[in-house]
Design brief:
The protein is an alpha/beta fold and 236 residues long. The protein has one domain: Spore Coat Polysaccharide Biosynthesis Protein SpsA, Chain A. The protein contains 7 helices and 7 strands; from the N terminus they run E-H-E-H-E-H-E-H-E-E-H-E-H-H. Strands 3-2-1-4-6-5-7 form a 7-stranded mixed β-sheet, with helices on both faces. Helix 1 packs antiparallel against helix 7. The longest helix has 19 residues. The radius of gyration is 18 Å and the shape is globular.
Length: 236
């Protein structure tokens, strides 16, 4: 597939160090398991985004870990460090970086929704043909995706946001509208931050192609049980 040189996709990824990723999952699962699950989340997300007709950038953190990322994910990918003191500043700077490179439409996603449908990301790029911005809301009040057209990029939407709060998406959309920009909303989806989220993911995957994903394969291989009526157990 030929990459669309006008559009780019920013994938935000942290290096999977034990005790530094998916901390809320660690309340119910062993840190080694959480670390490996996060690796699976990233690999499954990559499998999806590589099929999209857009230039892909891996936006990595920490900023001095590019060699580790290249060894993990492959040296043929394009890497962009996440520069900034908080999530909002890192996202704002990443958009600024790619618009400076000449891209006209850019969409940013994280690695917390490993089963995010490819069609939602494609819909985001389509939405940016007629809207200034696009946002994909999550069930918990955040968002799994945000995108801008270069002519309507509004850095202020990343400032003074209560990250981790259930008002993140609502406040972001309010800031977009306050800047007199149009916003297109995508269908709602779920991040996987807690054990409850992971249980929902497993249920969703039963009748989809995601049941053969790295995430699901890992859960089955290590006999990680996520049924609601029993305690979480592992064979490790």
């Amino acid at each position: 597939m030929t990459e669309n040189q006008d559009t780019c996709l920013l994938l935000f990824v942290k290096y999977p160090e034990k005790g530094k990723v998916k901390l809320r999952l660690s309340a119910d699962l062993n840190e080694d398991i959480v670390q490996e699950l996060y690796r699976c989340f990233v690999q499954d997300t990559l499998t999806t985004v590589k099929k999209i007709d857009s230039q892909l950038f891996i936006c990595f953190l920490p900023v001095d870990a590019q060699k580790k990322f290249m060894k993990w994910l492959g040296s043929t990918l394009l890497f962009l460090p996440q520069n900034g003191t908080d999530l909002g500043e890192r996202m704002k700077n990443s958009f600024s970086d790619v618009f400076t490179k000449g891209f006209r439409r850019a969409v940013l996603i994280g690695s917390d929704s490993p089963d995010l449908p490819k069609k939602y990301i494609e819909q985001a790029f389509t939405t940016l043909q007629t809207s200034d911005t696009v946002v994909g809301p999550t069930v918990d009040g955040g968002y799994y995706l945000i995108g801008f057209h270069t002519n309507s990029f509004t850095p202020s939407v990343f400032e003074n946001i209560p990250w981790g709060n259930q008002m993140v998406c609502q406040e972001t959309v309010r800031k977009i509208e306050q800047a007199h920009r149009s916003v297109g909303l995508l269908p709602m989806w779920s991040d996987v931050d807690t054990i409850t989220d992971l249980k929902h993911l497993v249920r969703r995957a039963k009748n989809t192609s995601f049941k053969s994903s790295q995430t699901m394969t890992y859960l089955h291989k290590h006999h990680i049980q996520l049924e609601d009526d029993c305690e979480t157990k592992t064979s490790r």
